[in-house]
Amino acid sequence: MQELIPINIVIGDRTYRIKTNSSDEETVRRTLKTINDKIIEFKTQFSGKDMQDYIAMVLIWYATQSSAASNPALEKEVSEALLKMEEQLDKAL
After folding, report:
1. 8 A C-beta contact, residue 81 and residue 31
2. Which domain holds residue 72?
3. Helices (DSSP H) in 23-70: which residue ranges?
4. Which residues, 6+ apart, have CB-to-CB distance to 81 below 8 Å?
């Protein structure tokens, strides 16, 4: 069993401290970069919304990407990563 390591992550304008397997850290950070880049993109396209709206829009976009639907292994990985993030966010809140 791998030991969990603590990392600080930023989603939108909030910082969270989560624990993850060291082997998953790179995947988590790549996913966060994609999410934050998409938040910035949606902020420029849809001004006047609040951060929660942008995060919801990005999650819908991320969950419905066609590449995940055509690749079952990627879909499973993305689903597991999102579930882990949701659990960790729930604990943090």
Report:
1. yes
2. 4-92
3. 25-45, 51-63, 66-70
4. 24, 27, 28, 31
How many C-beta atoms lie closer than 10 Å to residue 85's C-beta? 20
Tokens linked to 88: 């960790």
pLDDT of 1 higher than 70: no
Per-residue exposure over 33-45, b if at least 16 CB sit within 10 Å of its own CB, e if not = eebbebbeebbee
- Adjacent-strand bridge partners of 4: 21
Residue type at 90?
A: D
* Each residue's pLDDT tens digit, 24-82: 999 999 989 999 999 999 999 988 888 999 999 998 888 887 555 566 766 777 788 88
**Beta strands at 14-21 and 4-11: parallel, antiparallel or unpaired:** antiparallel
For residue 27, give the nearest of 92, 84, 89, 69 by alpha carbon: 84
Number of domains in the chain: 1
